[in-house]
Amino acid sequence: MIQRIQTLYLLISAILIAILIVLPFAEILSNGVIYQFNMKGVLLDGVLKKSGTLLSILTGTGLALHGYAILSFRNRTRQIRVIVFAILLLIGVVGMFYYFTYFSFSGSKISFKMGAVFPVVAIILDYLAIRGIKKDEALIRSIDRIR
C-alpha cells in the first residue's frame, strides 16, 4: 500500500489538508482594521464576524475522503471516484476562500498566508495520484491479457 507512489501523493495531500485546519488563510486589512481569515471564518480580535462552517465541513469531508481513498487501495475504480469527489470538494474550498477574501471585503488589502496555497497543491497531488492509479490499472490489465 505505502510503496505505491499514488498512496504517497494521497498521504501528502491529506497532511496538507490536515494542516489547513490549523493555519490561517489570509489577513485582511479593511478600513484600518485587521481581520484574520481561517477555518472558523473571518475573525476580528478573536470574535467571529463571518462563519466558516461550510468551509470547515468541506475541508473535513475532503480529509475523510482522502483517508478512505488511501485505505481502499484494492479497489482502484472506487479509489479514483473518491479522489475525484475529494478534488471537487477542494475546488469548493478554493471557491469559498475566494468568496471570503474578495467578495466579502471589496477594496481591502489582502495578505495571503501559507495556508492559501495548500488546497491547490492538494488538488495537484490528487491529480497525480489518479494518474498513478490509472497506470497501475493499465499494468494489471496488460498482465491479465498475457495470461
Description:
Helices cover 63% and strands 16% of the residues. It has helices at 5-20, 53-71, 76-103, 118-146, and strands spanning 26-30, 33-38, 41-44, 47-51, 109-112. The mean pLDDT is 88. By secondary structure, the protein is α+β, with helices and mostly antiparallel strands. It starts with a helix and ends with a helix. Helix 3 (76-103) runs antiparallel to helix 4 (118-146). It has a domain at 5-24 and 54-108 and 117-136. It has a five-stranded antiparallel sheet with strand order 4-3-2-1-5. It is built from four helices and five strands, in the order H-E-E-E-E-H-H-E-H. A hairpin with a 2-residue loop joins strand 1 and strand 2 (33-38).
